[in-house]
């Protein structure tokens, strides 16, 4: 059975418990980052900040920052992972203002999907333009506890949604979990969300890429970080920032 079928036909009643069991954050990196001299700041185009520059990568990751940044940071993250939420809270502002806007660091998020609600969230944060992916993901993590409480409050509605026709199923899950309302308040209309979630092929592609890349790049939990291709394992901000500095981002 593919990960898509395991996720979409599994019980969705306890997404937070599932995701917390699969994620963590440590201060000690697993891999190595080569020591580099401090890299000079690289100015953004006139009237812009590097953090406003966003694109989708060949791995369906969403990267912000200088496309030619010498320090490339990649995070494999789950949108229902408590450690990912903690990292976002601790790191987002300083990572954006000090490191990404310097032009030295680019920051790519790739989804590792842990459960059905996670999969729905991963599709919803892709419903807007590439520039909206990081802000929407940050909003999910900033509100993770109440979102998951609401998702778990009505398991019967989630189970009923999973019995709907395929082109209605994920929109039904989003509605039952309160996600449609959450994203509507953040610029993704109900019609837009329903249209995104009716595209089963795009939802399946997210799940399939999650499984393939987790195996290919040895991503065993979230958040897992890479700097310039080196797998550093699961880190919190206190453990990651020195690695960015070691790579030349000062």
From TrEMBL:
Q: Which residues form the Thioredoxin-like fold domain?
A: 61-244
Tell me the first and last residues of the signal peptide.
1-21
Q: Which PROSITE patterns match?
A: PROKAR_LIPOPROTEIN
Q: Which domain of life is it from?
A: Bacteria
- Which keywords has UniProt assigned to this entry? Signal
Q: Pfam families given for it?
A: Thioredoxin_4
Xref: InterPro entries: Thioredoxin-like_fold, Thioredoxin-like_sf
Q: What is this protein called?
A: Thioredoxin domain-containing protein
């Amino acid at each position: 059975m593919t990960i898509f079928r395991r996720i979409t036909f599994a019980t969705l009643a306890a997404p937070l418990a599932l995701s917390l069991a699969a994620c963590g954050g440590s201060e000690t990196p697993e891999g190595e980052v080569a020591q580099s001299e401090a890299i000079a700041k690289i100015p953004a185009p006139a009237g812009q900040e590097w953090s406003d520059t966003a694109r989708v990568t060949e791995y369906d990751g969403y990267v912000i920052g200088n496309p030619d940044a010498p320090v490339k940071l990649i995070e494999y993250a789950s949108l229902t992972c408590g450690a990912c939420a903690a990292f976002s809270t601790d790191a987002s502002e300083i990572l954006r203002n000090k490191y990404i806007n310097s032009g030295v660091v680019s920051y790519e998020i790739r989804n590792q999907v842990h459960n059905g609600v996670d999969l729905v969230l991963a599709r919803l944060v892709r419903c807007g333009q590439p520039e909206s992916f990081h802000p929407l993901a940050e909003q999910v993590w900033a509100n993770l506890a109440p979102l998951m409480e609401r998702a778990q409050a009505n398991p019967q509605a989630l189970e009923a949604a999973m019995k709907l026709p395929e082109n209605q199923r994920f929109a039904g899950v989003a509605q039952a979990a309160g996600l449609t309302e959450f994203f509507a308040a953040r610029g993704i209309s109900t019609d837009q969300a329903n249209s995104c979630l009716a595209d089963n092929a795009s939802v399946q592609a997210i799940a399939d890429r999650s499984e393939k890349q987790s195996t290919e790049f040895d991503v065993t939990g979230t958040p897992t970080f890479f700097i310039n291709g080196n797998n550093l394992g699961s880190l919190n901000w206190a453990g990651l920032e020195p690695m960015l500095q070691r790579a030349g981002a000062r």
